[in-house]
Description:
Blueprint: E1 5-8, H1 12-23, E2 28-31, E3 47-48, E4 60-63, H2 68-76, E5 90-93, H3 99-111, E6 115-118, E7 121-122, H4 125-129, E8 133-138, H5 141-152, E9 155-162, H6 166-195, H7 199-208, H8 214-225, H9 235-252, H10 257-271, H11 282-289
Parallel strand pairs: 1-2, 1-4, 2-3, 4-5, 5-6, 8-9
Antiparallel strand pairs: 7-8
Bound molecules: NADP nicotinamide-adenine-dinucleotide phosphate (NAP).
Amino acid sequence: MSASIGWIGLGRMGEAMVKRLLKAGHAARVWNRTAAKAQPLVEYGAQVVASKLDLASCDTVFTMVSTTDDLKDVLFGEGGLVTGAKRPRVVIDSSSISQEGSAEIRAQLEGLGVAYLCAPVSGNAKVAKAGKLLVVASGPKALYDANEAYLAAMARKVMWVGEGELARVWKIAHNTMFGVIIQNLCEITVLAEKAGIPRHVFLQSINDSVLGSMYTRYKTPMLSNLTFDQVTFTPKLLLKDMDLGLGAAKAHGVAMPAAAATRESVARMVGRGYDDIDFAALLIETAADAGLSLKPDGLTLSDGLES
Ligand SMILES: NC(=O)c1ccc[n+]([C@@H]2O[C@H](COP(=O)([O-])OP(=O)(O)OC[C@H]3O[C@@H](n4cnc5c(N)ncnc54)[C@H](OP(=O)(O)O)[C@@H]3O)[C@@H](O)[C@H]2O)c1
C-alpha cells in the first residue's frame, strides 16, 4: 500500500481516527482549519502541513469534517484540495453528509480524475480511539478493496454496502435511530424518576433488559451523573443528522413519525442555545418539561458500565 496519506479535519473524530492510522504504521500528512489542533499529532509521527493544497500530492486523502457544505469547501473552495494542477488519486470521506451532496461531490471529483469512496462510521471519538469503530463504505468495489486495510486500521469492522452513495443512506438511517433512541431513553428515564425509581437504578435495569445495548450502556454514566460537559457529539451535529434523515425520507417517500418528533425536540435544544455540550443534555430539557429538576445520582464506573 502507498504510504502517501493525507488527512483533512482533526475534530473529535478525525483526530482519533488518524491516530489509529499513525499507530498502525502509516505515515500521514495532516491539515486542520484551526491549526493548533494539528500540532499534538506531531508526536504521533504526523507531518503537519500549512494548506490543503499541500496534501494534493498525496496518493490518498481522508476527510472528516462537519457538513456537506464543509466537505465541498475543503475540496473545491478557495485553496481546496483539488483546485490545483496536482490532485490526489483518491479521496475517502467519513463525514456524515447527505446522499445528494455526496453524489455531487462524486461527479465533480470523478470528473477531475479523482476516485471517491464514502466511508462513514459508527462510534464516537472514544470508540475511535480504541479502534472499535464500524466503517461502512460505498463506491467502486475495487476502490474499496484497495483501501480496506487503511479502514481496518481504524475499525473493529469494515463493510462495503454497495456502489455510489449507499453508505450515506446507511449512516443517515443509523443516526436517525441514534436520535430517536436518546429521545425515548430520556423520556422514559424522566417518567421513571418522576414516578419514584432512582435514575441510575432505572437505567441499569434497561441495560440489563432485552432493550439494553452498547449505546444505552455507554450513555448511562453521563445520564446518571449529568456530565454533559464531556462532549461526544453536539446537539447541532445531531440536528444536522435528523434533518438528513427526514430529507432522505422525503426523497424516498418514507414516513418517519418518530424521527420527525425527535427532530423538533433536538431543534428546540439547539434553539435554546445548547452548543458545546453533549447531545444527551436532552435529558435536562425533557425533565424540565415534566417539572423535574435533576441532580447527579452518583453512578460510578464500578457499577460495571462502559463510560
Ligand atoms: N462525534 C461523534 O460521535 C461522531 C460519530 C460519527 C460521525 N460523526 C460525524 O463526523 C463528522 C465530524 O464530527 P466531529 O464530532 O469530529 O466534529 P467536530 O469535533 O466539530 O470537528 C469538525 C471538524 O471539521 C472541521 N471543519 C468543519 N468545517 C470546516 C470547513 N468549512 N473547512 C475546514 N474544516 C472544517 C473542523 O475544523 P476546526 O477544528 O477548525 O473547527 C474540525 O476539524 C461530522 O459529520 C459528524 O456528524 C461524529
